[in-house]
User: Fold these one by one.
Assistant:
Number 1:
Amino acid sequence: MVIKIVEMIVSPILAFVIGVFFLGLSRKIMARIHRRYGPPITQPIIDMIKLFYQKSVSHGILFDLGVVLSLTGSVVVILFIPFGGMCPLSGSGGLLAILYLMLLAPLGMALSGGEGANPNISIGISRKFILSLGYEVPFLFVILAIMTHYKTISIVEIVRAQQGLHWSIFSLPLLLSAIAYFIILPAILGIRPFDIVSAPQEIASGPMVEYGGKYLAFASIDHALHLFIGIALFVDLFLGGAREPITFFIKMLVVFIIGLFINAVFPRFRIEQAIKFLWKWPTFFAFLGLIVALVVR
Amino acid sequence: MDRGKISKWLKYPEKMGHKYSLWAIYFATGCGIMEIPPVLTSRWDAERFGVLPAATPRQANLFLITGYVSVKTLRPIVRTYELMREPKYTVGFGSCPINGGMYWDSYNTIKRVDKYIPIDGWIAGCMPRPESIFIAVTKLWMMIDKGAATGYIRYRENYRYYRENQERILGKLDWPPLYPEKMGEDNG
Amino acid sequence: MKIMDREENLREEILSVFKNTEVSSPKRKRLTVITEKALISEVMKFLKDRGFKQLCAISCIDWIEEKEFELIYHLSSFESGIHAMVKTKIDRENPVMKSMIPVFTNAQTYEREIWEMFGVQFEGNPRLIPLFLDRWRDIPPFRKDFDIREYVKRTFDVIPSLEEKQNG
């Protein structure tokens, strides 16, 4: 019992640290790809410290609560994800709970943005939901294929079944699912080429237009947590998870850096191009994976 | 640069945060904006000093006024400045915001921007090189360190003076005063 | 056909149709048409039919001693490469001109600018509203009798700086 409570406290903090590390690393690697020197790896922390010391302006109660809801959603999802043998809420829900809770973050942002009353926010929010519609379809197929293949909805069971290099990426139906998931990963994380939601040049960072000071700090914490969730889920579902945190972290790092190279060189999709793309290739691979999983079974 | 000093971070987290994370909103009023893209991209790379372009005034804390300010652009400049959250720093870029520059006798150009909004530092030149932006940033660090970059406090204290000057040029402003409590008292 | 011949042919053609009009060609690929105020619309239409499809700009000169404004319409032809200037003079005291929008649609913005800077009224232009200036209360600034330095002193320089204000 005590261990569970400790895990509940430790795992969000660990997720935050890793997420922020990834943010800093991504800025540094991006800079090197652009042939720049780049900021120090601690730059996201410096930004957050500054933002917490800046004065911020509120636009109403929902404006505050939306940010909190979005952050809470992310923290709760983290409690469901096994992180190197550590999974505080392993007994309940599993993949289905994750699937639903992952929608809390955009929902919180939408609630908060509705109070902000800025036209850019409405555009950003509508794009966010359209994009979710785009990636939820292949994501659902991926999850279904995995659940069919392992005959369980518990993510802990799935990780256990993959022990000893029986990674699901090495079996054919789930290889297709892994490809599909890897393609939609940037859309889930909201980074390029799917960063149309918060495109700073056209809609002035979308849902975050009215955020300043502490709100922006919370939004960037949320982004860091989201980065952790998206990649940790990939590692858990396809790369066999890990028994100890270090191995898990290394696996995450590999996935993240491969994803970052794609992120660094591609331009941004328009929203209808993004939907067209997401409903074509990832959906095709995910659907094929589901069919094969059903047949093989 | 004392960005790596942990002891200083623990002692003054506020100052250090503001120093090494300057998010700039730059107002493309005139020719000065041409110097900004090389500063931000690979050639000079301002990000290594923590200077980033901000998307909106709410997120920014450094305001770069690049180039001459015409009467029509003064209005959005004032609005942008008032939208920014405190503490905020302003830098006038080029000789035109300082005293009008080559537009010293123009009928439609604001001659001294610091009569309408407070300016923390100036970069002289027509045009200043991108390196001078970095010199300005390092000077701004020193000023923040000493507590001398007090433009936003000056604005709050003398709000009535600034608002009167703005209304003198622009006519009646169609947004409410930022510090209504300062409008009543005389601080001349 | 020799190169100079195109300008010469055009000159003769214009002179045969319009009276009270001077046409000259100061150098190769240039054509200057000086005509009277009433004829300008017809001249422009005529030139448009001869291939001058683009209205590049409209400029205005304030001849304060003659008490006249001179309007210059710059036309250009993509076929022959000739740059034609159609000039006319209007009264300075009552500067009214017919709008050129029916012939060239893009004249609207040029006329709006000249209305703002010189105060020339263009009849038939539906959008004569301020373009560059913000709440201008003085005489139009490009007129010769507008004293810029005096205006700058009166408007911008009288505002005290913060130090001056604080030191009294």
Number 2:
Amino acid sequence: MSDHKTMTLTLIVWRQKNASDPGKFETYTAKNITEHHSFLEMLDCVNEDLILEGREPIVFDHDCREGICGMCSQVINGAPHGGQVRTTVCQLHMRKFKDGDTIYIEPWRARAFPIIKDLIVDRSALDTIIQAGGYTSCHTGGVADGNAILIPKPVADEAMDAAECIGCGACVAGCPNGAAMLFTGAKVSQLALLPQGKTEAAARVTAMTKAMAECGFGNCTNHYECQAACPKGINVKFIARMNREFLKAQFA
Amino acid sequence: MQLLSSSIGRKIVMAITGLLMILFVVVHLIGNTTIFGWISGGINAYAHHLHAFPPLVWAFRAFMLAAVSIHIWYGIQLTIENRGGRSQPYAVKATQKATFASENMIWTGLLLLCFIIYHLLHFTMKVVPGMALVPDAEGAINVFTMVVSSFQNFFVAFIYVAAMVTLFLHLSHGIQSFFQTMGWSTDRTLPVYVKAGTLVALVLFLGYVAVPLSIFAGILKG
């Protein structure tokens, strides 16, 4: 590692003590950063310096650091997860930045996501949407034969594409209206596509879209910023599918 | 009713009323082109036949008024609801897919409302000054003379062209939005709808501005 050049970056980071604190930007310097650091590792370095100086470290969400858990949630230079295609913040690497860059780091900003501290927001509104209908009701008992219900491969694939959603909330953060249409669309679609989920499809889309509005999420105006922000590349076709399911439910 | 209590349902209503207006705008343009004289009697004959049965004219006007009103009402409501959907703006604005048209639907829409009111005062109620109103033997206004005399004025021609730019912006986002909101789009078809919608909006724009521009340029003369 010693043969690599290091970078020095200026970070302008949103600091906020709690939900009621108005919050403000503070400027930090990230030193001795190599291109191999992930974005979160870069923040770890900054936090180590802050701790040594006896200052409060920057608080941010993270967990698996391999792009599959959906915990990391930062808006970097205006783009959720930093704007690299299909990449979560933890998989964003410092090689995407240049020595001397200034980087703005902000939390997800949405009415339905109150800030807990600094870069951590409360995303439990997404859980509320899932609780409203993001499941199938089935009897427990003997394990069903895995191939008892045949599902065509293209259908299974499409359901899997929707199920790729890791629930990080980048779609909400990227949406100018703070809408959770892509999240809810993906969850409605992954179940509505499969035979096990079709039974409750009408009740599900009705309940989940209702919960979505009650949680304070905005409405869709078809900007498609959500798809651009999604680290899993969830397509807005699942919003169209949800709209279709919603329309069908009116006649159910 | 569940349909109207959900924003998805209200948007479906907006999509359907929007489609009605798009169809109106297409037929209106076909009617306008009669000013170039491709039917016998030109635009005067077209206007005469169009208004031949007043009850139908009024029924249609009431229908369009309802469609336009519902579309505007829900458009304003959705815009107000979406204000503050993002708790506060980001320090850096970095939209990746949103366009000028998609971000300004409420404003292009309200500008079009202003234009529609002006347009009705102009050619339907005929109360805007500065145009020649020449009645024929039966008392019907000569539409061709009225239109030509209006568009010889730079400001009137300018207002109409500017309004059609606004219409282009509104429809370039609106047409593809129709398919997405109705749930009729997929990852394969949506890019086609985006391109086709913009193309249709462009054709409508060119068709509509052809009339004031050809009159202002002196190609169509009274």
Number 3:
Amino acid sequence: MVPLSHYLFLSAVLFMTGAVGVLTRRNAIIVFMSIELMLNSVNLTLVAFSSFLGNVTGQMLVFFVMTVAAAEAAVGLAIIIAIYRRKQTVNLDEINLLKW
Amino acid sequence: MTLEQLMFYGLGAVGIGSGLLVVTRRNPVMSALSLVLNFFCLAGLYLTLNAQFIAVIQIIVYAGAIMVLFLFVIMLLNLRDERALSDRLSARKIIGAGLAFGLLLQVLYILMSAADGFPQKDEALAVSTGTVEVIGVQLFTTFLFPFEITSLLLTAAIVGAVLLAKKKLD
């Protein structure tokens, strides 16, 4: 049997991978995909706890996280398309209108 | 080694590998395809946790719908490759990777110090929590209100996406 800590360890490593992607990559779409990776690692934690504790609430939370992720992906990609139409780039270094 | 362990360590290794590919590939299409592989691995891991419903939803919604949207946008924008990651090892990259590694160490420390108190898996209980029946009953009783709010959220997202992607705002 696989202990709970192994699932949590895997989830932590996946979350860290996503965090590295968000902090180091400059392509807006890849940053976005890294965020999806982080969301998924958290989902893994929730499902692992839900299964080990025999409590279905964790899986319900995953269900809602997925819905929010779908909405986020739709709106975020629409924003990226709108920015690309204006500036012809998705490089985050060149999108600095709101930076001080 | 039991089948469960075999599946966990195999899928976990492929999942971490494809996760690393997502953040290291220059070509966004390669990143997106690696992410699809990663989602399939996670769906397999959900199955080892007896969460059948979540596993199926993971494949349909994430690997099916969301990643198709990503690939569609990547190909629509016809992005060129980013400059090589090793081109210049800028301070931001080092600091970013360092911060993330520090985060990992912190989480691992907490995991280590709390590992004794983790619950043991009750196989029969775990099997009975992840079924579609149990989730459906919960969804339409205890979680009915959040479920309805979700529909509102999705409507707002659709309207927002259409409005944002429109050519001219008039």
Number 4:
Amino acid sequence: MQRQVVEQLMSDRAERRPAAVLTWLASGEQRIIHAEDIAAMPELGEGLTEALRLDRSRVLEGADGDVFVHVFNPPLRMVVVGAVHTAQFLVPMATLADYDVTIIDPRTAFASEERFPNVNLVTEWPDQALAEFGLDTRTAFLALTHDPKIDDPALGVALASEAFYIGALGSKRTHAKRVERLVAQGISEQAIGRIHAPIGLNIGAVGPVEIAMSIMAEVTAVLRGKSGSGP
Amino acid sequence: MGSPNTSILSEALGWLDEGREVALATVVQTWGSAPQPVGSQLLIDSDGNFLGSVSGGCVEGAVIAEAGEVMASGEAKLLEFGVEDETAWQVGLACGGTIRVYVEPLKAH
């Protein structure tokens, strides 16, 4: 491996840009690729796309023998809109699963250091906070406030992003009303269909701890290429 | 498991800056109950110093020895360790897995 390959990986990581190092195991030939290079590599294309999406390094069979695809994806992030009770249990779970968690809630009574120690707390309105945040393919987005004034604008930003998971708390009825409001804002039904709602896998969760577990399970399922509970 | 940590690679740059000769070993395939996932890396220098892990201790010794040859020759090697393999048992991969490890020189230029 050349030093410049390692340096490129470091700068990709700093910019949160997914990358992979391909090594042809027989010849030792090596190159670094990014998502936009995959189209030019049809014989490996599908396997490469899947390796990057599922964050799974693996050997692929190419025309010139086995190719090791070493995936270097940026670290996972989770953005939680709503410094609510469920979020207090979700934060430690997500942190254990290697997510860098940010809580956004303009209500300072909720978003307090005391309730959320050791986590990024942003007490701005979510559409403002998210404009600078850059929701990307390695970010999960959760709207948990139940309050349309806070959740709706945040969902608008999330639906325009590449976030790999978008979930919103609320019953089927609450979600149906939310869909109506988002449609009225001019968001397409196809985009709205990306929202996982009611949020979380259906494990019959009772109380905030179990709801946090069901959310974490669904985010994991989607990250790993399983379907989750909906949309 | 998440993404492979780039901390090993970042250490590798530091070692190169110090003028050390460096090889990188990477788990490229596993079968059965391999102790470290694909993508795990071990950094080795020509004095036998190492950082990281490719097997949680089972085959590191053998990989480090091979890395010496890789650094000397400048040619990468693909190593395989498994339970059917007498060497594998000797190096202690008795946990029932097979792993393939790619060992390559890390070149400053």
